[in-house]
Amino acid sequence: MVAEARGDFSQIPILDVSGLYTGDPADARAVAETLRGYLETVGFLYVSGHRVPRADVEAVRSMSRSFFALPDEQKLQLKIDKNFRGYLPFNGSTIVTSSVAKVSKPNQSESIFFMHEVAADDPDALAGKPLQGPNQWPSEAELPGFNATIERYVAEMSALARELVGAISVSLGLPPESMDRYFEKPTTFLRLLHYPTQPEEAGLFGSAPHTDYGYITLLAQDDVGGLEVKNKAGEWIPAPPIPDTFVMNVGDILARWSNDLFVSTPHRVINRSGRERYSQPFFFDPSMDEVIEALPPCVPAGAEPKYEPVLYRDYLMERIDKNYHYRKGAAAAPQAT
């Protein structure tokens, strides 16, 4: 272990999750037990031994570079909409809800969001429910193969996330399928991010200190670096890129769900590398209509849960409404990594 107590760490641990794929419950249980320790103490880890092909990770990164290289007028044709899908220009968000730091300057990045696909004639979309609508895509003529590359990656990342949901359940002494019902229609975000090199300036960040909103985040980084994670001593610990891994972290809703057994750890991005940085965080969250309340194994006998039950839609939108400039009090999404 790289940590013996909550928040006491000096590096980010690596977990080989190949045991989740062998079909042997003992192998899966061993992964789950180690995972629990990391989620309780660090809230961050590198996931290796997964089944997402390197070629597919790199294909998304290549498509991301190509998209952000388009002229601004083309990108702005896909400007982010009320359903939180599309292009967010530079200086488009300020993390005013951060519990980690007082943030007054916009994040130094541009990004494009793809959420779970919802057809325009879907009942939820027709009813005007929050964040329910189709994604916005660049044309095939502009970026051939873009849509198929993204959709394949989202499917692969969703499959990996579901394996990790099962492992988290097992880590708590629950059957592996016990949380599946909360993710029948998962709320997912793939955010492609481009960070320019930023100047030395007080209070200026690629992504200001924050915790993520949701269940788990799975991040593919390029080789530039810049992600840092805060330990309980207040030190910012680098999370440098490691080939063929994803950085996984606990989001606030999983911390709440676990009655704070698992820790949602603050992190930030500072890109002073002299190079452009590209990252692709994937956020896997419960269905919007699910009520989240403390899991029984996480509440000590005779104790009350720390948090009242909450509808995930209400929880997410309340945080979302404040951080993104275009919303003006209407909505937002997970933070950047």
UniProtKB/TrEMBL annotation:
Q: Which domain of life is it from?
A: Bacteria
What are the protein's GO molecular function terms? dioxygenase activity
> Cross-referenced InterPro entries, in alphabetical order?
DIOX_N, IPNS-like_FE2OG_OXY, IPNS-like_sf, Iron_ascorbate_oxido_reductase, Oxoglu/Fe-dep_dioxygenase_dom
What is this enzyme's catalytic activity, as reactions? Answer: 2-oxoglutarate + O2 + 2 H(+) = ethene + 3 CO2 + H2O; L-arginine + 2-oxoglutarate + O2 = guanidine + L-glutamate 5-semialdehyde + succinate + CO2
Coiled coil residues, start to end: none
| This enzyme's EC code(s) | 1.13.12.19, 1.14.20.7
Keyword terms of this UniProt record:
Dioxygenase, Ethylene biosynthesis, Iron, Metal-binding, Oxidoreductase
Q: Which cofactor does it need?
A: Fe(2+)
Indicate yes or no for the key word Oxidoreductase.
Answer: yes
What positions does the domain Fe2OG dioxygenase occupy? Answer: 186-286
Q: Which PROSITE patterns match?
A: FE2OG_OXY
**So, what pathway does this thing act in?**
Alkene biosynthesis; ethylene biosynthesis via 2-oxoglutarate
- Keyword Oxidoreductase assigned: yes
A Pfam family that the UniProt record links to this protein: 2OG-FeII_Oxy
The family note in this entry says:
Belongs to the iron/ascorbate-dependent oxidoreductase family.
What name does this protein carry?
2-oxoglutarate-dependent ethylene/succinate-forming enzyme
